Amino acid sequence: MKRIAVLTSGGDAPGMNAAVRAVVRKGLYEGMEVYGINYGYAGLVAGDIRKMHRRDVGDLISRGGTFLYSARYPEFATEEGQLKGIEQLKKFGIEGLVVIGGDGSYRGALALTKHGYPTIGLPGTIDNDIAGTDFCIGFDTAINTVLDSLDKIRDTATSHVRTFIVEVMGRNAGDIALWAGVAGGAEQIIIPEKEFDMSEVAEEIRKGRERGKKHTIIVLAEGVMKGNEFADKLYEYGDFHQRVTVLGHVQRGGSPTARDRVLASKFGATAVDMLKDEKGGLCLGLVNNQIVANDIIETLGKKKHMPDVSLYQLNKEISY
């Protein structure tokens, strides 16, 4: 395989640029031609494709977001859209593709695989909700961004003896809430994977106040409900001077951590090795700190991501 391409799709994540950089530099090192596709699958279908050189990825490893840009393109879910994309790849003589993104991006890669086109998927999403990997590109940076906010919120919560409900991202996964909540010393972590009782939440706050606790931090995963809705429901059990902070898209930005940069670099270089060996239809993951390659059809069809729910119990035992 002498000519490959790389694209980023779906929501941006810190470390995507590091992954693209690794694909380009490793591909050139192996004597390949490497092409970048702008705006994900939308750019693929439109033929927004350019040849990449070493200088094109210089000084990008520290930048968040994705310099290849990203766009939603639901039309790629149709066979017509997929065949248009493959037509463009063939037009440029591209023999293999690296797709960096989350669940929707993987489904596009899966469609290309089913059409017989060699594709390697790399997990890039702050939500950390991809099956077949312990960690995704961007997750570590996101939880550190949340942690920094929690540390600051605790200062004002203590000053005013308030309860802060901090809504974090993650779609339907509770990974961000779990990891940031434990690291930030949150009193409560509310995630989609665990049922909760609002009366118990209120009772724990009361017990803390009785012991002289000056603040309460509740980290709420957006997949459960919105922060304001949670606050309204909590009011039914008492006025705990609750305030809501929605961190929003700040969690997606920022310079990637060392962990995300290294993980992205490993994934990118390994993807090139796979394509060099004429392998496709795979998605890479990190399992027990080892890079693994999974069949993308089997991974999306049979496996489901589950967060480390032991962190939930740990927090219940040490937070009060």
Describe the structure.
The protein has 320 residues and is an alpha/beta fold. It has 2 domains: 183 residues, 3-Layer(aba) Sandwich (Rossmann fold); 111 residues, Phosphofructokinase domain (Rossmann fold, 3-Layer(aba) Sandwich), CATH 3.40.50. The protein contains 11 helices and 11 strands. A 7-stranded mixed beta sheet has the order 3-2-1-4-5-10-11, with helices on both faces. A 4-stranded parallel beta sheet has the order 7-8-6-9, with helices on both faces. Helix 2 packs across helix 3 and helix 5 packs across helix 6. The radius of gyration is 22 Å and the shape is elongated. The model has no long low-confidence stretch (mean pLDDT 95).
